[in-house]
Amino acid sequence: MADSTGSTITDSNAKDIPTESKLPPHGTPCWLHIPAHSVPRARQFYASLLNWTYAPSSEEYPAEEMAMIVYPHAKLNEAGFMGGILRVKEGKGEQVWANTGGVAEGKKPVAPLVYTWVDSVDDAVAKVEGLGGKVISGKVEEGKTGWMAVLADTEGNAIGVYQLQPGVTC
After folding, report:
1. What is the pTM of this model?
2. Which residue stretches of the chain are H helix?
């Protein structure tokens, strides 16, 4: 079976996407965000280079906007480490930090971002400046499932923090 961009989805890799799990401990990596100006082009690149496959697209997450990664190592998927290639949207709140252009268009590169689970996005945002970091993008709602923020560490590296809303499972 192929999804709307032509990437092959098989029962063997689609079943590796977690449908329900326990939350990992605070500080555990949970999401790899890869910004892209062309999601189909980036999908093909990572599929060819790293053998990544993708979950089927949906009405909520169309193939032109997002590709959910299914990693070759099933244990990553089972552990709840997820990821996606997401279309860069100029001037859209939480994504403004990544809008520096794309190498393929001859512009400055956008950067992948790893999100980590936190017990409270509010606490992480409140704590970062006292530790010498900065808030790049404050707390925003992520779909219907949680909240996220993008922070900078003491060296200027971006780090995402993510918290599920009460009652939501990953």
Report:
1. 0.69
2. 11-14, 39-50, 74-78, 121-128
